[in-house]
Amino acid sequence: MKASTIAEREASGRAAREHAKRSSHRAIGHMHRNPIDLLRQSSEGRVERLVPLRYGRMTVSPFAFFRGSAIVQAHDLSMTPHTTLTLPICGDAHLLNFGGFATPERQLIFDLNDFDEVSAAPFEWDLKRLAASFVVAARHMRFSRGAAYDLVMTAVNQYRDRIAQYAQSGALELWYERITFDRMVDMAVNAENRRLIRRAMERASGRTHESMLEKMAERDGDRYVIRDAPPSLFHVHGSSTLFDSTDDWFTLGDWRKLIHGMYEGYLKTLSDDRRELLGNFALHDLVFKVVGVGSVGTRCLVLLTADPHGKPLFLQVKEARRSVIAQHYKAGSHKSEPRHEGERIVQGQRMLQAASDIFLG
Q1: Helix H or strand E encompassing 9
Q2: In this structure, how many other beta carbons lie within 10 angstroms of the beta carbon of residue 236?
Q3: Whose CB has fewer CB within 10 Å in the chain, the N or C terminal residue?
Q4: pTM
Q5: Res 223: pLDDT
Q6: How far apart are CA 8 and CA 3, in angstroms?
């Protein structure tokens, strides 16, 4: 939604409130659904031998189940009143899908870091999933009901206050707004919080390609080879593979055949300077990686490359499936509608993330 003045935006907000009053957001929606059926639906097309691992990870705790069942909440939210204020949302904005990482300028920031479910939908769906994640996590950690309530109220009140602040910001000022770790340290309310934030800074700054190489790979002649660590990490065509012999990836027989077409297509989506930069890196190895909870069973690869000095660069290649948000909310067509699911995720990440990886494509 675009409006030329703050007054017009406020008027649009008041009109949206008439469509969905604040009290209506207490509704839990149409609950006559079988969550198992929805989970089976979301498992279709995944690597078959990994689907039980997905369910196993989800049974570890109520919060793990919540992480892996975005389709259930998308279904339930689609049955509730909404504001009609539709824009690109993360679609899976639970508290563990935020984290620290370095910008292209090597500045440590805190932001969303998962966009598999990004889609156009009512803005409050993200806020509701975030609030629900605090409640589920608090219960799992045996916090009191009062503590859970305080966590949710702090989150939503901060959201409200920041949106009010951003409504007064200029377009460029808002575009360059980001949450840095240094800013978080300055805003910390006590010494213990500052210590925890600095510890997170150390962990984030220590996650480099070189440190990953030491942990994951070894030299074999003139190239690096990633070590298998099944079921989380394995070569598609190796002895530890979890692919069936009839799978189209497995029947290719060689990882270079598997990645060649993908990689060439990917390079075409990058700007000239970044394509030139990647041209300095040779392909060394490729493994399948089992990621997260909700994504287990989807096709995800880690590609290890290195420059002429042996300095590594890891690239992640992820399957882009249809968003669970799009399955349960019809936003209508748009002139810039993505041509495929991969483009949807990249467009959404670039729109929502303060600073995206320079190799995102």
Answers
A1: helix 6-19
A2: 22
A3: N
A4: 0.90
A5: 94
A6: 6
Residues 247-281 as b/e (b if ≥16 CB within 10 A, e otherwise) read: eebeeeeebeebbeeebeebeeebeeebeeebeeb
Read off the amino acid at residue 240.
S
Contact of 92 with 70, CB cutoff 8 Å? yes
CA-based angle 63:64:69, to the nearest 5?
95
SS3 120: strand
Bridge partners of 120, per DSSP, are 88
Q: Count Cβ atoms below 10 Å from residue 328 Cβ, excluding itself.
A: 19
Cα 361 to Cα 349: distance, rounded to the nearest angstrom: 10
Give the tens place of pLDDT for each residue, 306-328: 999 999 999 999 999 999 999 99
Cα separation, 304 vs 255, in Å, equals 12
Q: Do the beta carbons of residue 301 and residue 287 sit within 8 Å?
A: yes
pLDDT at 1 (0 to 100): 47
Closest CA to 88 of 355, 353, 348, 350: 348
Sign of the C-alpha dihedral computed for residues 99, 104, 108 and 110 taken in this order: negative
Helix (H, G, I), strand (E, B) or coil at 55: helix
Q: Among all chains, which residue has been given the structure tokens 């990633």? A: 226
CA 247 to CA 34: how far, in whole Å?
Answer: 30
DSSP 3-state of 143? coil
- 196-227 tens-digit pLDDT: 999 988 888 888 899 999 999 999 999 999 99
Question: What's the average model confidence in pLDDT over 42-68?
Answer: 95
**Distance in angstroms (rounded) separating the CA atoms of residues 266 and 317:** 10
Domain boundaries, the chain: 6-205, 209-318
Residue 84 falls in which region: left (phi positive, over 0), alpha (psi -120 to 50) or beta: left
Q: Closest Cα partner for 124 from 96, 162, 84, 161?
A: 84
Give the whole-angstrom CA distance, residue 59 versus residue 3. Answer: 46
